Amino acid sequence: MSNNHESPRPVAEPSGSSHPIKLSKKPQRVSVPEAPERTAKTACIRTFGCQMNVHDSDRMRRMILDAGYAEVQRYEEADLVILNTCYVRENAVDRVRGHLGELTRLRREGRLEKVALTGCIGASEESADLQRRYNIDLILGTHNTYELAEFVGLPTMRETYTPDLPGTEGEHGAFVTIMTGCNYQCSYCIVPSVRGRMVCRPMENVLEEVEGLVESGTSYVTLLGQTVDAWRHDGRRFCDLLERVADRAPRVWFTTSHPSNMEDRTLRAIGEKETIVKRLHLPVQSGSDRMLRIMHRGYKAERYRRKIGVFREFVPDGTLSTDIIVGHPGETEEDHEGTLKLVEDCGFDSAYIFKFSPRKGTEAAELGGVVPEDVVQRRFLQVLRAVEQNAFSRNQRKVGGVEEIYVRHGRSDSGKAIGETWSGHAVHVDTDASPGDYVRARIASAGPHVLYAGEPSA
Ligand code: 5AD
Ligand code: SF4
Question: What is the tens place of the pLDDT at every residue in 320-368?
Fold first, then answer.
């Protein structure tokens, strides 16, 4: 995959975008209302996993608001709870089980009426067991989310809530799904079974959505897909679409890419088009050719290195992130050394490192050569340290410079707003500016994960 599943975080729970004013036409600052009185119906949506799920939750949010529910943030205040879930690793499922346990208790106490489970767990075989065990009222997979409409009392709205319609309107930042599913068969990955094969939206349709969003006040469009750069339609390829979107939206990013689909022309567009954020998320998974073959990734480490060389050439000030799996069955010490070497050569600005998690129904779950847990842990820490050391020294180079920062989240209780530079660095900044605003500020210090800026200059 590339996963678009969990990267690039932070995603999630509760969804950063689950604010009740979500659907207002123009971005506006409104204080968060008190918890609604329990006279109106209330619903709480929890999102686990990738941006795809965050986007699906946006769509479901439209349905519950249209059906007259008020959105609340706490289970205790909700009549209906929707868990929109991730199945990519076992710990994601464990977390959901924990939440289901809590919801069962609330239900027993008569404080909650209904529970719905949606997303990738909903599409998996395991959902039937969970439904029995926790008495879940509604299970939906990834292809029939629109059925939630009927469940919450709206007419069946297959047409109204299809993926072709925007889930977010009037927000400063919006996701636009350009493709769903995946045609790869990576040994370890459950995504093809829960999300299905690749389906690409027509270009005109995507552009129309982007134009509508920009008109309604959106200033940051993120193109989404499990293998977003595999998009193709009517003879047109991803770089064609990206360039057109970049001509229409003030700020653009995309995730997640697959190295086999990443064209040099796309990398050049990232460098040349001013509206594209100069950040590339390109999951490599391993630095060993032997492991890449076992994983069915379809490329060798050298080809990946070459792509990164092209990216660095076209986008010298860009940031690069990746996904790496440690402890896939059969991974030897030599394979692991290959990964450490690749990390050193590519100089990632960040990486999402995962311990292999066997998923029932995938090829890797049946393979011998299981790596002992203590070895996996050691390899995990070694890769993490290598990534962080490099990221820290790269970030240090930004200190002292003045950056134009796009504010993504306004000032939090802890005092700082969170923004993003054009090079794709996350920055904590001392400003009262609203999401969607730009500020200029000097970078005062840097850690391995974020930059810290002082007060913006006028
Ligand atoms: N075990 C560990 N990590 C996995 N990923 C996908 N499936 C598994 C698995 N079974 C990781 C990959 C992918 C990211 C979203 O999750 O690195 O890119
Ligand atoms: Fe990504 Fe491979 Fe999974 Fe497809 S099968 S979503 S390419 S990791």
Answer: 999 999 999 999 999 999 999 999 999 999 999 999 999 999 999 999 9
Q: Is residue 256 lining ligand 2, measured as CB closer than 6 Å?
A: no
- Cα 4 to ligand 2 centre (Å): 9
124-141 pLDDT, tens per residue? 999 999 999 999 999 999
The answer to whether the beta carbons of residues 204 and 216 sit under 8 Å apart is no
The finding on whether 186 has its CB within 6 A of some atom of ligand 2 is yes
Q: What is the dihedral of CA 16, 21, 24, 27, to 10 degrees?
A: -60
Closest residue CA from atom 4 of ligand 2: 1
Query: Residue 255: CB within 6 Å of ligand 2?
Result: no
Which residues have CB under 8 Å from 46's CB, separation 6+?
13, 14, 15, 81, 82, 83, 84, 99
- Please report which ligand is nearest the Cα atom of 354: 1
Residues 6+ apart with CB under 8 A from 198: 179, 180, 181, 182, 183, 226, 227, 230
At residue 325, the 3 state secondary structure works out as strand
Low pLDDT (below 50) residues in the chain: 1-37, 159-163
Torsional class of 190: left (φ above 0), alpha (ψ -120 to 50), beta (otherwise): alpha
Residue nearest to atom 17 of ligand 1 (CA): 323
Q: How many angstroms separate the alpha carbon of residue 248 from the centre of ligand 1?
A: 33
Please count the residues of the chain: 458
Whether the CB of 184 sits within 6 Å of ligand 2: yes
Among residues 302, 298, 252, 291, the alpha carbon closest in space to that of 272 is found at: 252
Q: What SS3 class is residue 353?
A: strand
Helices 238-248, 264-272: inter-axial angle, 10-degree rounding: 10
Q: Give the closest residue (by CA) to ligand 1 atom 9.
A: 357
**Which CB contacts under 8 angstroms, 24+ apart, belong to 400-403?**
400/442, 400/443, 401/442, 401/443, 402/440, 402/441, 402/442, 402/443, 402/457, 403/427, 403/440, 403/441, 403/442, 403/443, 403/451, 403/453
Ligand 2 centroid, distance to 395 Cα (angstroms): 30
